[in-house]
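for the record, two folds in this file. i put them one after another cuz i was lazy. first one right below, seq on top, structure tokens after. the second one comes after a little note so u can tell where it starts
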Amino acid sequence: MKFALSLSLKNIKRRPFRSAALAALVMFLSFTLFFGAFTIISLQNGLEGYRSRLGADVVVVPNSAKGHGTVDDILLQGITGAYYMSAKDVEKIKAAPGVEQAGRQFFLTSAKASCCSGRVQIIGFEPETDFLIQPWIRESYSGEFSDGDIIVGADVSVPEDKTIKFYGETYRVAAQLDKTGTGLDSAVYANMNTVKQMAHNAANLLETDTFKGVDIDSAASAVMIKTSEGYSAEAVADDINIHITKVQASPAKSMVSGISEGLSGVSGMIGVLVGVIWILAVVILIVVFALLSNERRKEFAILRTMGASRTMIFSVMAFESVMTSAAGAFLGLAISFAVIFPLADTLKAALGFPFLLPGAAVLAALCGGTLLLSVAAGVFTSSVSAYRISQSETGLLLREDA
């Protein structure tokens, strides 16, 4: 075995171009498999994060929100504007049949100006009625959260002094939330008193029609509803849409199922594409190894006349395949990490779905599986040719070569 291994290493060094070409094919297999699996897992993680963070049975927004996309677009990509419903409409929503809890939220977008540290979406909530944001906050922060404090999403850049300025005032960053893979990661959260103070400052500092006709102290941008037992989300949403004309209510379940169906379609397409690429690449590997084996018939015939056994011939080719395949698989993984992670945000935007990167344990398992399958593919395809050559008669090999 030591002789077979030594001879394999010498063969690889003697024919570097041939070895590099084989490694490149396996590298392509490795990259394709890792990229496909990584994308599918990230999409599935994003859906789970979206489902767990949405938490409400019904989401109600004013009709003016329609210009900013559908409700699920707003929640997935990050709310991109300011729209408000009156306190009267909020009270009607709370009094609607089947409404057990109604959490009021107020949306505000910071400005690209010296008054603000950056442009982000700010979401205000009522601590006394909120049943969505505060449980999420408690996963990352267990301290006090009072007026003037803000909580930021995972994608918001936090300065070293842990403060961010909005509309001329500085606010303390109390904590940074866990990543969800949705537009919520780019938002800033504060209690209603803090956000309304920001809105008043914005109205005083900027020449804008955003708050024209809006009572900042009593308005709301959205109401998140938890339905009472015995009421369906669809029935509650329909009742609100019928009896409150200035708002749009949507069952959260339908948003999640719609996203899930779209995600399944995308994941299926990626899976099929990866499968087709793998089949083509394996076929190409089989053909390449067969051609290379035919070119090396004289080499193997000479080894046989020198006393090398069929097992030795097979071992030499197997060792060469393992080493070149392993090199290609590792290189494919290295390229995957160099390309995919820096472009994760671009990929997320292109797909248009929640996208949450897998954790370290899942990544390690994915890397191990990719290496194992890629090397196995290379070894299997070479073994077909190796076995055929090793079983050929020496005299026949020499006569064919002559």
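(here's the note) second protein begins now
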Amino acid sequence: MKKLFRFKGFTLIELLVVIAIIALLLAILIPALNKAKELAAQVPCLANLRTLSTAFFMYQSDNHGKLVNAYTWSANPDNGSVYTGDGWVYPPTDMDIGDPFTAAGDITNPDWCTVDREIRGIKRGRLWSYVENAKSFHCPADKIAGKHNVGYRSYSMINTVRNPHFHNTMDHAVIKMGDITTPSEKYIYIEVNRMLNDGRYHWNMGAYMYCIVHETFEENPSAWHNDGVDLGFADGHAEKYKWKSKAVKDWLSMEIVPPLAPTTVNDTEDNRYFLRHIPRGDR
């Protein structure tokens, strides 16, 4: 007589054990996958900054040591601004109009500050001929343009480069390459968050603001790369700076990040690093 075999199903305890094992494996794997995803975005970001930093270095080499201008607000030298038309990039501009400064009407208006127009402004800048790739101006981890329909360029140039009249620069601007001591230690580019006080985003106008006079951040950097920010340096190299202070991490993790750093950020190793490595002259 044949034996009848009956399939034995999982008991409740066995099922719970399997679920617990799967949950444990996911808890182990997800951070690793997130880290891999982050690295996948950071590698091209650092490559972008090396490209831009090399372009910065080549420009001064081709112009007898004269530095390109960090200021991007106006391409019109007749409007009374300190900008003289030699910026590394221009504002968002429509090539069919004569005045690219028109974009300044509303810096958050997605109907004007579109990606296409911003790329047109980038192409009119002094460094475009050294780069000729719009993707070099955008970090893959930067999702602002996709989410908010405004802003494409992920990087700003530090405000001390060719801007002697800014209130937060005073007489510490660097005008020629010779003004930059130890170029391998002086950052030129930084990733920026581009958030306004009300939580809206803009097209990354102006330069990145660090106030030498009061020794404080006046604009919020990005925190896209595992609590760090990518920097491009005056000698052409790029590297990641990892935030060390909880005060800085708390500031940058706020839902609406105020551009002016809270006072708790000033007395930190991070703030001292950015003050110590900013390119500066004394005149």
